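During data preparation, we tokenized the protein backbone, and the record follows.
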Amino acid sequence: MVGDQLEVSAEAQGKNKNHISMCLTAFCCRPERSSSPSNLKSSPNPIEITEASANPQPGGSSFHANGSQELEDSLPSGSEQQKVRMSPGQSSNIVSNHDFSNGLESWHSNCCQSYVASENSNFVNGVKPLSGSNYAVVMQRSENWQGLEQDITDKVIAGVKYIVTVFVSVHGDFHGASGVQATLRIENLDSSVSYVFIERILVSQDCWRKLEGSFLLTSNPRRVVFYLEGPNPGIDLLIDSVAIACEKVGMTSSPNIVSNHDFLNGLESWHPNCCQAYVTSGNSNFLNGVKPLSGDNYAVVMRRSENWQGLEQDITDKVAAGLKYNVTVFVAVHGDLHGTTGVQATLKLENDSSLSYVFIERIVVSQDCWKKLEGSFSLTSKPRRVVFYLEGPDPGIDILIDSVAIVCEEVITYRVSSNDEDISNNDEHIVHNPQFEDGLNNWSGRGCKITLCSSLCNGKILPVKGKFFVAATERSHKWNGIEQEITGRFVRKRTYEVTALVQIFGHTNNADVQLTLWVQSPNGREQYVGIAKKSTSDYIFPKNKHCLKRTQASDKEWVQLQGKFLLNGVASRAILFIEGPNPGIDILVDSIVVRRPIKAGSSVPPITEVDSEDANVIRNVSLTDGLNQWNPLGSCKLSICTHPQSFSPVEYSLSFYQPQNKRYILTTNRTETWMGPSQIITNRIKLHITYQVVAWVRLGSGASGPQNVNIALNIDNQWVNGGQVEANNDRWYKIRGSFRVEKKPSKVVVHAQGPPSGVDLMMSEAQILPVNRKTRYKILKEKADKIRKQDIVLKFIGFHEDLSGASLKIHQIENSFPIGACISRSNIENEEFVDFFLKNFNWAVFGNELKWYHTEPQRGHFNYKDADELLDFCQKHGKQTRGHCVFWEVEDAVQPWLRSLSNIELMKAVQNRLKGLLTRYRGMFKHYDVNNEMLHGSFFQDRLGKDIRAYMFREAHHLDPSAVLYVNDYNVEDGCDPKSTPERLIDQILDLQKSGAPVGGIGIQCHISHPVGEIICDALDKLAVLGLPIWLTELDVSAVNEHVRADDLEVVLREAFAHPAIEGVMLWSFWELFTCRDHSHLVNAEGDINEAGKRFLALKNEWLSNADGKIDASGEFKFRGYHGTYSVEISTKFKSISRSFKVEKGDSPLVVIINS
């Protein structure tokens, strides 16, 4: 992204072909562009000045593009044998003046100068043109991004792939090679600017090189500019010719794959499906006078006793997987019919052991009236048999079929001209009639009525995008709304972005509105995919109806809903709908658009190094300078006090401490909870640095019972939690927390707050310290080496030859430390997801499939199928599994039917749940989270008494004694939640154990932001006192910048791997769109591994041991390695010997016998 763009420009052209032709252009410089693939820069639209100039002066410095490779087709200048003519492909070149035969006409220099060199004007350093008689020279470049550009806005179309071919060279004072890059600058309708990397090559001095690449636009922006950039400042860029051509010449039509499509040959190739059919013509008298629509005949399907009976044709040999087919059928119906009936086009897919159906399209047809049915389909794999058929009307109703066409959309139809209309392609037209310009066509009410409106409430509500909006009225359920079937219009494993403008109308101030996709798989499995949800508000006339808020609406205006979806499996049907508000509230919809999102550029790594001189951000910490730098927040009063003798640390156990400094700030006269001591730290905060917050607090007079005390940061009026504790007035409490600032703030204030008005607050030794993670990592590596590695002695026994002196290589195949991930039933339909999971994780946990609300959504209606299939998948691939979860203590996670039960019925339901789940899966799950989040909820305890929690553990152990039973909660590790501290969790576990609960392990969820290793370690140290194994059960870190996310993930993983009490880590999913927090994924939705994923893989690789050497005289080899599975390869004079072995935890050194 760049800043505001300068929108002033002037044309400059040089057209003299017979004389020295130069067009020098000078522009204002532009701001840096962080999203450029090569860290180049971009410019605003320029102010262009045309003038004459002398020949360019050579000069510059060398440039090396990391990772680039020299191409084999370098062309020395002036080599007649290697002159090449531009071959733009089958379609026309859209670049104007592509070979500079008209000087610089249509071209513009980007903040530099340029001219066209020809034989008359002396070629640069004797470099001759490659394909014509001229070439452009771009000179006086002071930045990498400066070059030559051309506006191609009117020549490109969304959805069409363009091939780019450019012949370039460089000239200047440098050695080696320099990079040249082709780029698109996209100026969007919302005035934002983005960049599309096309290709980059390395070019040697005065040698022509061929740059080839391609691009495809997913939408039509306001402006598209193609430009060439790249060499270091001072190096001239030489351009021989430029071609941008469509990949293929468009076809206006493809062959119809349906045999005898118009029944000219009777019923040849067609077969009635459990009914009868014939072909009628003028000679045989048309049925009831209904004449054919397009030819001389039509088919009549009769004596139908079931809806699914109709006419079919086998098209197995005429379709291929991965292609889209468009279906067009003209149909009518005849019979004893009042009103209308439905006709549907369907595919039947037959495999060796299964049968499935693909819905194509369904339309409503009136008696004896021809109607056009249109739809499409694509196959993700080729089944054994594919049958197309028409079905649908009620039994006894005849189907009339005039003609059938199924056409492969192999090549996109397009025209290249400045007056082209929008092209109808799959991505841009997933939703038909998106702005209701065609009334209610393609739309229907989902259990309610929909009405087309041009305004409401005396003109206070008006459409935004077009002339109409739709109101969904007479809603009796939350799921009622507006819907459209989009079956066959999207491709599995591809990401789609949905954008809708919505509003509510009725007697309410706000309500939740949600975009949902209902999907049915070929085997009948249903899935609801939540795409986007927003709390919206009632109506009001906005000041500017075209000014849309992209954040949560404050009150009474159109709200934008935006989200993404990706389907892992095949969908036989898919319906997109809007739902959410309570019954009686109308939903207003202005527009709904589904398209492929623009691919975001890679994140730029921020500067996160901590200087050795970086110190405490807080000034006057010791208070030796009185209250200097400190200010009261609000009308409270601050004073400096010293500790009385009664605060001596000898009065407390070793678990408690107090500040070393005797001075503290006393805050009195507090009339609001937010009042306390504050300090402005704006200019002392660095972006992207993680800061640790430490402070001592204590309550003064006026406190009755424990109170929350918080160190807060006000960052441009946004509240940030810097750490929180629940305190009494009996002693000092230490607050530890963290924060990070991602954008340059105008003001940052830190302050203490929390207790109710009237309660005095004391604070001492407040510190905000930048975290030096690299220093911490050195310590963690040493700790991990001690607890995760072992001294190993390999003893080679029974070999026929003496192995002493033989060389060997040891390679660790897998570290046995458990690292798992969350998976869901739909994920295992995605081949790329499965591949990444199987390669990189050895444990699994199910996202929702084992939870009570999933296995018994309605009382007595059970669904174990999803969990069964996931468990089968894990067992097949040798992955251990955690059972999450038997119960969930938070009331919002309890299904409504369960909440409505009496206490007696509820207890019976709890018993049935335990028996049903634990006996069904006895011995299959290694762990169970018995009652999830007991620090944050108390539904079962409130209803059934305190002992219910221990009862759940006792009964679970009785039903499956092999499973280790865990408590599981969040926010225990980061100091941000006074409800969820290590001390509280310890008390809970001890209380359960006193009641006979066999608690076998501690689950720390670890949904964490800006983690600090020392804080995590401190929490783990406290919990480790219980002697129970600890697992991080739901780890994720969230950061928009992938490099920052990678850093955060590394912090947590290193702390876990280096702590002796941690016995395993589970990532709470890793695939985009299937995580519980945004910006926490390691792999992008379509399978690209991002920076966080690369860091994860690098750590896993670091935690593998390899060794090589020679076997000693006693037939042994010694090394130190991580626990896990190894292979060893021994090389003797005569042969190579391979063996594998395992290193388990045990005494050190571990002796491993390698037999012959």
